Amino acid sequence: MLSRRLLRVKVVKALFAHLKSGADNMIASEKTLLSSVDKAYDLYFQMMTLPVELARYAEQRQELARQKKLPTFEDLNPNTKFVDNAVVRLISQSDAVNDRVAARKLGWTTQPDLIRTLYGWMTGSDWYAEYMQAAERSFDDDRRFMETLFTRLQECEALDEALEELSLMWTDDLPYIVVMILRTLSSLRPSHTELRVPPQFKSEEDPAFLKTLFEKSLVGYDANQEYIERFTANWDIERIVFMDNLILSTAMTELVAFPSIPVKVTLDEYIELSKYYSTPGSSTFINGVLDKIVEALTAEGRIRKAGRGLI
Length: 311
Fold this sequence. Notes:
Layout: H1 4-21, H2 26-48, H3 50-66, H4 73-76, H5 86-92, H6 95-103, H7 112-123, H8 126-133, H9 139-153, H10 157-166, H11 174-186, H12 205-219, H13 221-229, H14 242-257, H15 263-277, H16 282-299
Helix pairs in contact: 1-2, 1-12, 2-6, 2-11, 3-7, 9-11, 12-14, 13-14, 14-15, 14-16, 15-16
C-alpha cells in the first residue's frame, strides 16, 4: 500500500501547484491530487511488469540465436536462468497485475528501446553475472535476484528518463514504489501460485487523511502563515523560501487536525520531507520553528492527542 509519507508528499506538491498557479478551484486541484495518487499506484504495476518484459526480450534473443545458420554451442544451449526465473513467472501469470495493466493501459510496448537498453545494462552488471553463473537454482535465489534488480533500477538514468516521459507524476514516486515492490517480493514463498498485490491504501483512513489534510491545509493556509510569522520574526522574510512556509503550514494543519497522529511522527515526517523538497538548510530551520509552534499550540490547547501512547 502507498505509504503515509508518499501521501504527505503528494499533498504538499498539490498545495504548491495550487498556490503558485493562483488557482481558485479547490475541487479541481483535489481531483488532480487524487489522480496523482492513483498514478503512483499504477507505477507499482508498471514496474512489476518490467522484469517480465526483460525476460521476454531475453527469450527472443535466445530464439534468434538458435536460428543462426551456424549456431554455437552456447546459442543452442543458452543459460535460461533469468528467462525461467520463478518470480518473473509468478508476476507474468498474476491476474491482479495483468488486470490492472489492461484496465489502466499500462505496460512497456511503446518503449522497445528502453527494454533493449535495460537488458544491456542488466546483463553487463556483476550482480547479473553472479546470479547466472551460480550453480544453485532455487526460488530464494530467484527472489533475491529480483530484489537486487529492483533496487539497482533506481540508479538507472535511462529508466528515469522513460518514466518522466510516460508520466510527469512518476518522477519522484519510484523510491516509494520500489519499497512496496520489495515488501511484496519478501513475502513470496515457493508454494504461492498467485502474487499478493497490496491494496492502494492500508485502510479507509488513508484516503480520508489525504483529502482532509489537503482541504484543511489549503483553507487554513493564510491563517497558518500569520501564526508561523510569530516564530520567524527574527528571520529575513526574503530568505524563507516558499516551500519552507508551505511545509510548516501543512505540518501545523496535521498537528491540529489529526488527534490520532503522534506529534513526533508529524515532526519527523515533515522535517524529512524538507530534506528532499526544499533547500539544504531547510530541515534545521523547520525543525526549530516546528518545536516552537508545537509548544505554543499545546499551551493554547489546540493540539489534543487521543489514543494509546498519545495522552
